[in-house]
């Protein structure tokens, strides 16, 4: 990835960040403000964080050939961000000897810098669970838009190759090929069926070409989402949505949709309508996970003790994990002795154990919920349900 390039983060990006281990991995999180009035404050905040990062880098035992490029990348970040003021709520930066990634994200981060032997990914977790991330795909003949959403915000992301609409995607050269539709009589479940009319094409051809268009849109959407499992809400004219569903290969396309011409709706309106659809989905998922933890408390299959949870995550035994947002629990895990040492604050050589258990759980296929401390089942700053 190019230095300083702003991009939405996918589950694939997250997995690649989790796999990085190095002598010095710098993770920076800070709130940002799209309004020009706050730009100077954001620049000062970022400059102070970069200064802290450079201090952490200088304190390592890195050889000059590794240390100097890291310092240069950190300074370059200031220039890049000044030119591309983030248009969302938060900025995340990940810097090591071989990696430099920046993400402009729809999350209001607390200001934080962590220097460790792996990247600190815990602040990103609300995007991947609980009332975290979902997508809206607004599709019409004229254009295609995709929104990456959280509970509180929405950010439009690119879908390369399909944003120009049906005519451009299918390489139509004349307006006579444009397909037109109107609703016919209601069918058995009260919905109106589609009536297809085409200038220069037959009714069957119209359906075939629309299906071909939707397949290309679906292919672009799935390529962008990569290995995502986040809910995807469709928005479009009601009689076109079933046709899109019939050709889609995305596994978590939610039931229902936003009916109407999406070209007439701004991102904020699409986001609000989509949240009404996905909110019950998120609430039930988290509530079910918390209930299972409570059910198995005291059986040996659930725990809120980090001394038990840390080894279990490394061994791949954790099925579901709750961790506290905005908190760090510093310590060291001795894998050889299978022991956990807890510290009161960050020191050279220790790490945030909440980040460690989140990374290990995700790497081993478990589910992680980053929530407020009061929402964690049982007690403490973490709670885990074990597979065995």
Draw up the topology in text.
Layout lengths: L10 H9 L1 E11 L7 H20 L5 H20 L6 E6 L4 E6 L6 E7 L15 E6 L4 E6 L4 E4 L8 H4 L9 E8 L5 E7 L4 H23 L6 E5 L4 H7 L10 E2 L7 H30 L5 E2 L2 H9 L3 E7 L5 E5 L4 E4 L8 E2 H11 L3 E5 L10 E5 L2
Parallel strand pairs: 5-10, 10-11, 13-17
Antiparallel strand pairs: 1-2, 1-4, 2-3, 5-6, 6-7, 8-9, 12-18, 13-18, 14-15, 14-16
Helix pairs in contact: 2-3, 8-9
List keywords for this structure.
alpha+beta; Nucleotidyltransferase, domain 5; 60s Ribosomal Protein L30, Chain: A; 3 domains; five-stranded mixed beta sheet; four-stranded antiparallel beta sheet; 9 helices; globular
Tell me about this structure.
The longest helix is centred in the C-terminal third of the chain and has 30 residues, at about 265-295. The chain has 3 domains: about 10-120, Translation, Eukaryotic Peptide Chain Release Factor Subunit 1, Chain A; about 135-285, Nucleotidyltransferase, domain 5; about 295-385, Ribosomal protein L30/S12 (60s Ribosomal Protein L30, Chain: A), CATH 3.30.1330. The protein is of the alpha+beta class. A hairpin with a 4-residue loop joins strand 14 and strand 15. The two termini are about 40 Å apart. About 35% of the residues lie in helices and about 25% in strands.
